[in-house]
Amino acid sequence: MFSYQFGQELLEQGIEVKGRYPEQIVVKNRRQLFSIDPSGMLRPTFDGWQLIETGYRVYIDDFVPQGDILAPGVVDADPNIREGDEVLVVGKRAWATGKAAMSADEMKRSKRGIAVRVRKVRKREEKRSE
Q1: Domain coordinates in residue numbering, the chain
Q2: Most exposed among 36, 66, 105, 125, judged by the fewest C-beta atoms under 10 Å?
Q3: What angle do CA 6, 12, 16 make, to 5 degrees?
Q4: pTM (predicted TM-score)
Q5: Backbone angles phi, psi at 27, to 5 degrees
Q6: What is the third-level CATH fold of 57-123?
Q7: For residue 90, how many C-alpha atoms fall within 13 Å in the half-sphere facing its CB?
Q8: pLDDT of the chain along its 130 residues, tens only?
Q9: Is the dihedral of CA 119, 66, 63, 107 positive or negative?
Q10: Strand, coil or helix: what is 69?
């Protein structure tokens, strides 16, 4: 499923699927990497995104998302993103993971509408200069 969904080979060893359908997760060393939705598609956690080397990234302006990401906040996006793809949102102040609500081209061109339906946000650590 990983190679079908993300177009890459998963070369990690020691990965296990835990739980019963429809609430299954993929773990390694007790760290959750993915959850599996009822249709069988993988939903990466922040740890899971570390296994996906390239692609499926949406770049946003300098803000911390407070819900879904609107198209005007998108600066750039991987051109292969289609509506419904799992994406990692990358910004200067935060990371987020979610599902694309429009294609990459639409995200970059649109002046309105939801670009990414956000599931989880993680603020980046701020570096203090002393």
Answers
A1: 12-49, 57-123
A2: 125
A3: 95
A4: 0.88
A5: -130, 160
A6: 2.30.130
A7: 12
A8: 888 899 888 877 889 999 988 889 999 999 999 999 988 899 999 999 999 988 999 999 999 999 999 999 999 999 999 999 999 999 999 999 999 999 999 999 999 999 999 999 999 876 555 5
A9: positive
A10: strand
